[in-house]
Write a structure and sequence with these properties.
The protein is an alpha/beta fold. The chain has nine helices and 14 strands.
């Protein structure tokens, strides 16, 4: 293991943390040294699976581990703020799974704390770091499709209604928008920046969460983003960036792609962007690089952009009538 290895602690050994841990296996200068759960048996099971030396039955014990450099937070949405603050106040850097928080007020507290303490903090938006998305940014900068006029993207799936499940419980920050709607929003923001107007429409289900939501974002130069998300609707997981001279299609699933299609001046080509690992490794690499460089935030996923996205989601929720009990 390299001398500059970044030691990770996993806070919350759930399914997304399992994906992240599998990603870490593809990062030569990173290792998981500890995992914490409110259930010690769950922590031990995760530790056994990924050969993690330390398993703790509390989050407090995890963040107190002196060998841990950075905490990955993979708990449900409503806990992100508290667990981020717990980690920061223990002197640990943080990679917090999306959505970063429930709302803007929470996000502001998290960001303020990290900046006051001089610690690294980043939203774990894995798609932003992938080779295909890096290539998209390069093509746009080169004006391969001219000036950007429109972004179309969706992310959703159909699952069975479970009133006690995370996706359908208001007090866990459930619903499509926060869970997966953040992905197309983040893509649009990466390309077009902050909109000056938003129009949203949603179907709120029996538990009160948004089961499908569509939103149109407008920009001061006339650009438009047409986006949708769902937890009760099968969606094709497509994304297209349309310019004055062509378009780029990020092939399905666009949020974890290995190729894209470029149509420029009527000439079409497929560009291969192969993934190393399962894709979650790229955000771990970015976090590690930033920490070694003494940076407290990422240029790829900066905190001001995370905050802007939270404000957009707050506005969408206001329009569709979705409010959480903790607000």
């Amino acid at each position: 293991m390299p001398d500059n290895t970044i030691n990770w602690g996993i806070l919350g050994p759930g399914s997304i943390s399992t994906d992240f841990a599998q990603g870490i296996e593809a990062v030569p200068d990173a290792k998981i040294v500890a995992v914490g759960s409110r259930d010690l048996d769950r922590a031990k099971s995760f530790a056994d699976t990924f050969n993690v030396p330390n398993a703790y039955g509390s989050y407090q014990a995890l963040v107190a581990d002196p060998d841990v450099d950075i905490i990955y937070i993979g708990t449900p949405h409503n806990f992100h703020k508290d667990h981020t603050l717990l980690s920061l106040n223990a002197g640990k850097h943080v990679l917090c799974e999306k959505p970063f928080a429930i709302n803007t007020t929470e996000a502001e507290e998290m960001i303020t704390t990290s900046r006051q303490k001089g610690l690294f903090l980043m939203e774990a938006m894995c798609s932003r770091h992938l080779p295909a998305l890096v290539k998209v940014c390069q093509l746009i900068a080169e004006e391969a499709i001219g000036k950007i006029r429109m972004v179309q993207a969706d992310f959703g799936f159909r699952t069975v209604v479970n009133p006690e499940g995370r996706l359908f419980k208001l007090d866990l920050g459930g619903g499509a928008l926060l869970d997966v709607g953040i992905y197309p929003l983040s893509l649009a923001h990466m390309i077009l920046g902050t909109p000056d107007r938003i129009t949203s429409l949603a179907n709120l289900g029996s538990t009160g969460v948004d089961e499908q939501t569509a939103f149109i974002l407008g920009y001061d130069s006339g650009e438009i983003a047409v986006l949708s998300t769902a937890i009760r609707t099968k969606i094709p997981h497509g994304a297209t960036i349309i310019g004055t001279d062509g378009w780029i299609r990020i092939n399905s699933p666009w949020w974890m792609p290995d190729n894209l299609t470029l149509n420029s001046d009527g000439q079409e080509q497929t560009i291969s962007c192969p993934l190393v690992g399962n894709g979650y490794n790229y955000e771990a690499v970015e976090a590690g690089d930033c920490i070694r460089a003494g940076k407290t935030e990422s240029d790829i996923m900066p905190l001001d952009e995370t905050l802007a996205l939270m404000k957009i989601m707050d506005q969408i929720r206001s329009q569709i009538g979705l409010k959480y009990p903790m607000e």
